């Protein structure tokens, strides 16, 4: 591709830009699956956790299951209503982080950011662990190897995201809608059977659950309350991911806020319907489900369950019973559930870079995360996410029940701060608003957020009380660490900014430019560097050669004279073949002789294309440039000479630049398939 | 350290240089241990290998042991005599590589280099594996974990060499002389006992060896010949390392060649004495020794040896028997033997960078290896050596007997090519020499080298025949791979040189300099870059800002006007926050408008000192510089601004520069302890 093409492409790209941008924004029917997979997928594990907690008091406690389901549904309704306010008030996509920062200050914002970071790691760990359980449900040979399966899933997801996958609407739409159809269809069919009275029992219906020690029929009311609170807080895992839409408003079609709010409403309704249906069916079909670590509490006809017995997830048990006469439907339900769980994990890989770039813009993360195209910084983020998730999966042996204990704290910390921020937002807005209709509207919004805050605050307290020792302390510790790192980064940037703030004397121009051109041989790059240096008309110009071998030096001096270059050549002797130090020292000597002047060091470099060629060249130039950066009053100029093979590297860089990055879709940045889009 | 100190140190350093250089050269008594540890250490395993091979035909074959010892001693005498000629003819330290290159051409030289590279890896693997066996002999709990012990040794050696250890004469002298005293003392004591008739038997004397299948008393003469040839070629492992002195002539005191030749003679005499003494004593003391993989061929009183039985190395058995009444002496012998083996491995870590720098100078290895101070290239070499050695140790389970099969091929390939080269050398010299005395001397030298060639050629053929299938094919394959890599690197450098060769038109000066200064903010670094750029008086000068956010852009534009800088500011819009591409495109547009001009891009950079600070800054500048290298007609100037913390990095760089590198001693590069030496 020649220079002409490049400019043409720029022009073409610019012309297309604004129109194409509209095309790539998401209609509601596509936005729903893109942002909903995380929230909807939790129906695959949240009901299971409710039943596990209740089973501590034996199967009789399952009478509480639908009440807990309704309590979770109420909280979800409140949260959805609250976020609909957020979407209208903060359409820029900053989400909870922005709301907290603007209304509650930087510390609240950074707290939310820490919570979200922890949350992304846990989303991957929990979703993939749950997915591994479904995989083991469908492919029995995997039973007992869930941690290994989950780790492989994470590694594959990481590789896909490092490579750059085109996250398109279709990519999400098909599996998410398939999941909705499968689960809602299964539930509808089950409820019809329930009404007709032909509802079958699930496979675990004939099991007996021994209550856990201290949880039997002699349980105190207080202990029962605590148990119900634990079950409720585990069920609140269903709420994770609801906030995703508030981070993705810019990707919606216009009117963005209204469309986002509507989508959020749909999402809430679907999620509540699914969860309540699954809980009801499971209860009616006689489900018996305990913590997989306590299978010894299950018995059948008075005998303990045989060794090697394994529980299938709740949805798998329901599907198997409901579709007892049509096993393809059972496998379809299991498969789409597994896919949606992996998709939910993938949303964390996509959300992470978006959060990173927002944090970078505010100085809480390395600046490199803030600009598109820093592939290294971006890849590090994805690898970090994957490694943390794998550590959690291995430590907790991919047991969803134990990972859930860590999960919800982060989510509810950010829910709370966000709701509190929204209340402050409306209070502030009310101060300046005089139109009564709009004031009424604001009052209403503030009430909704206040209700939301009440609910989420109660849940957070319950979660902290019931889960702190069970693992939530790890989450809180991780949040504190992230918080301190981010504050530290910001403090560093602030210090640097202060040190760099310009004052008047900085405009002083150097009185003299002393240019030196490094010479290693008399070849094209050296001659080009000499010519370029001459073109800048410095006050003094000389070639500098580091002599490590008298013979080569004499040859060069002769050739230098022959060429009649009109530039003197300074020879620096270096008996031990050091190249960098003599040059640095010489530059500093010149600078010292002319403290108000500047030394310009010209380094001829030739540019090769293949990675192994790069290993063979320019190591000295690189080291020298690195060292000269520390010499005050010296500027370093690279004069490149492109060898034929450099074309290869140029093309590779261009390909890499055009590659899709995780998170593009959520930011409304999508190119068309020919890569001619708005980049 | 201020600039003044730096210059003073330079001057001081220069003044001291020539006098200090003399001081650091090695007297013979120090040079012997420095260069002899590799050659002498082989007495710790070479006799064992002879007995192992002979034991295939049962203990009766041990009658051949001293004859094989004498054959090995003869070869060693011939090789030592030959290398004494090399040391006189090629005092520059290039050793076999130089001799082969000069006299037989580049391909022979590269072949020798490949052989030496393989040899370094094997020196580490064999010495450390043997050392691990001695460690297991002294500390029985290590028995069976030799491969693990050896791997740990290699990792520790690697770490020490990466860190940079001061390889001083004392470092070698004490353990090497201790080893000589211990072994020669033990042998002397044993021989006195032998003469007096009180020589005890070794621990294995009462064992019986069952001959290996096909090697019994019914063995054919041909089979016996083959067996003796195998034993002989294993015994030739004693010759490895003899050539080291020829690579180290520059480190000797004057007269360098004569001192080196004398040291070589001492080395040869000591090595031969040790080897013959050990073999004689072992034979007389009734040693029984088989391949550790075939312990089932040993029996005691007609019963097989018990499970868990382990053989101690030959020297350990002799020492235990001779010092039966004084066990500290036994432990002393074992300990110094172990130390000398580790020291021998360390010489490979020291020789490797020296060979690398010679190869780099000739274009067969990456240039970066050729200059002191390229810590990265240098470290890569050490890590490479360690990793290859560990792979060999693990694959061969640290069994010296199996590793020996790979070892000697490389050594004898380089012996042969070197001797052949020396014969050519003398023939060529004879053509121009007319002084009869010197001609006689040359004829004598040529005869010595011819004898040397004959011996080493015979050994090489025997080694190839007896060991090819036992492992020597791996060595040959590795040599071929190294050979092809080195030739490929050289071909690449030649191609580049051809492409870079200067012609007349390269002197054309650009007609116009268009300078652009990148602006991200109006802070000190930007103002400094603007001032420096102005000082070069370009034909056109403008600031360039990539706008990703209209608000920030407006703020900057206002500030720019307020400051009254007298330089226009060009704003490039980048809606997707790409920073690099707009700048590269703009520079190329300017270049296109003025094809005969040059674009000078000034990048303000601020320099921080701590590694984590570096992660937080300048990623964009780095990427931009990388991309601009590929833009023809663009030169890139870094204008650094040193923040306070940059001092830390400067001090770190200085420390790293002054650090000792492996191989310094062998090149005659030693600083005194205060680090003020000739660097």
The first-to-last residue Cα distance of chain A is: 18 Å
- Low-pLDDT stretches of chain A are 1-23, 670-679
Instruction: Please report the two chains with the greatest interface, counting residues with C-beta closer than 8 angstroms to the partner's C-beta.
Output: A-B, 105 and 106 residues
Give me the oligomer status.
homodimer
- How many domains of chain A? The number is 2
Number of DSSP helical runs of chain A: 22
Membrane topology (chains A, B): Multi-pass membrane protein
Organism (chains A, B): Nocardioides panaciterrulae
Keywords (chains A, B): Membrane, Transmembrane, Transmembrane helix
Subcellular location (chains A, B): Membrane
Task: Describe what you observe in this structure.
The structure is a homodimer of 679-residue chains. By secondary structure, chain A is an alpha/beta fold. The first copy, chain A, has two domains: 8-15 and 22-304 and 311-494, Amino acid/polyamine transporter I; 510-658, 3-Layer(aba) Sandwich (Rossmann fold). The first copy, chain A, has 22 helices and eight strands. Chain A has helices at residues 3-24, 28-41, 46-54, 65-89, 95-104, 106-138, 146-163, 169-196, 221-235, 244-247, 256-284, 314-322, 327-361, 375-395, 400-432, 436-500, 524-535, 550-563, 580-593, 611-616, 619-628, 646-658, and strands at 207-209, 298-300, 303-304, 513-519, 540-547, 569-573, 598-607, 634-642. In chain A, the strands form two sheets. Chain A has a five-stranded parallel sheet with strand order 6-5-4-7-8, sandwiched between helices. In chain A, strands 1-2-3 form a three-stranded antiparallel sheet, with no helix packed on it. In chain A, α4 (65-89) crosses α16, α5 (95-104) packs across α15 (400-432) and α7 (146-163) runs antiparallel to α14. Chain A is elongated. The relative contact order of chain A is 0.13. At the A-B interface, α1, α16, α17, α19 and β7 of A face α1, α16, α17, α19 and β7 of B. Chains A, B: This is Amino acid transporter. Chains A, B: Residues 659-679 are annotated as: Disordered.
């Amino acid at each position: 591709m020649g220079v002409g093409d490049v400019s043409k492409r720029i022009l073409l790209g610019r012309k297309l830009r604004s129109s194409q941008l509209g095309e790539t924004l998401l209609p509601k029917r596509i936005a729903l699956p893109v942002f909903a997979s995380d929230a909807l997928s939790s129906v695959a594990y949240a009901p299971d956790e409710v039943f596990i907690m209740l089973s501590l008091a034996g199967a009789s406690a399952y009478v509480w299951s639908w009440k807990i389901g309704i309590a979770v549904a109420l909280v979800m309704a409140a949260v959805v209503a609250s976020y609909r306010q957020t979407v209208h008030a903060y359409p820029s996509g900053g989400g909870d982080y922005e709301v907290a920062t603007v209304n509650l200050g930087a510390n609240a914002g950074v707290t939310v950011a820490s919570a979200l970071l922890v949350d992304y790691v846990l989303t991957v760990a929990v979703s993939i662990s749950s997915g591994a359980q479904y995989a083991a449900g469908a492919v029995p040979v995997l039973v007992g190897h869930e941690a290994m399966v989950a780790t492989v899933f994470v590694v594959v997801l990481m590789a896909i995201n490092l490579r750059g996958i085109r996250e398109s609407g279709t990519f999400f739409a098909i599996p998410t809608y398939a999941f909705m159809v499968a689960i809602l269809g299964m539930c509808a069919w089950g409820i019809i059977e329930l009404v007709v009275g032909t509802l079958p029992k699930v496979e675990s219906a004939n099991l007996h659950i021994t209550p856990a020690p201290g949880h039997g029929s002699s349980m105190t009311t207080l202990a029962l309350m605590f148990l119900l609170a634990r079950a409720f807080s585990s069920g609140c895992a269903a709420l994770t991911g609801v906030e995703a839409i508030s981070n993705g408003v810019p990707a919606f079609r216009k009117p963005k806020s209204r469309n986002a709010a509507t989508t959020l409403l749909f999402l809430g309704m679907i999620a509540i319907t699914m969860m309540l249906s699954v809980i009801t069916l499971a209860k009616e079909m006689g489900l018996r489900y305990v913590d997989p670590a306590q299978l010894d509490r299950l018995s059948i006809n008075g005998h303990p369950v045989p060794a090697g017995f394994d529980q299938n997830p709740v949805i798998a048990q329901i599907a198997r019973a409901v579709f007892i006469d049509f096993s393809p439907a059972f496998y379809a339900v299991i498969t789409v559930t597994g896919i949606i769980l992996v998709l939910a994990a993938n949303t964390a890989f996509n959300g992470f870079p978006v959060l990173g770039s927002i944090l970078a813009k505010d100085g809480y993360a390395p600046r490199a995360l803030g600009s598109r195209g820093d592939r290294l910084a971006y890849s590090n983020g994805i690898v970090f996410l994957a490694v943390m998730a794998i550590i959690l999966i291995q430590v907790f042996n991919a047991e969803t029940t134990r990972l859930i204990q860590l999960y919800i704290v982060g989510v509810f910390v950010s829910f709370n701060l966000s709701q509190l921020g929204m209340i402050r937002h409306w209070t502030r807005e009310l101060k300046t608003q005089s139109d009564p209709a709009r004031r009424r509207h604001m009052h209403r919004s503030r009430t909704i957020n206040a209700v939301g805050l009440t609910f989420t605050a109660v849940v957070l307290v319950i979660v902290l009380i019931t889960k702190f020792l069970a693992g939530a302390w790890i989450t809180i510790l991780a949040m504190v660490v992230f918080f301190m790192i981010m504050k530290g980064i910001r403090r560093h940037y602030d210090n640097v900014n202060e040190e760099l703030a310009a004052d008047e004397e900085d405009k002083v121009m150097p009185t003299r430019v002393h240019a030196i051109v490094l010479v290693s041989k008399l070849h094209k790059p050296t001659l080009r560097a000499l010519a370029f240096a001459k073109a800048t008309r410095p006050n003094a110009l000389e070639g500098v050669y580091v002599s490590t071998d008298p013979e080569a030096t004499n040859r060069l001096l002769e050739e230098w004279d022959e060429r009649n270059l009109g530039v003197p050549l300074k020879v620096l002797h270096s008996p031990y073949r050091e190249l960098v130090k003599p040059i640095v020292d010489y530059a500093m000597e010149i600078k010292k002789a002319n403290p108000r002047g500047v030394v310009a060091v010209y380094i001829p470099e030739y540019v090769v294309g293949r990675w192994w060629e790069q290993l063979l060249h320019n190591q000295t130039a690189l080291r020298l440039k690195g060292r000269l950066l520390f010499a005050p009053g010296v500027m370093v100029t690279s004069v490149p000479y492109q060898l034929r093979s450099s074309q290869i590297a140029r093309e590779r860089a261009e390909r890499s630049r055009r590659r899709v990055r995780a998170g593009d879709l959520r930011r409304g940045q999508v190119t068309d398939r020919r890569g001619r889009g708005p980049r």
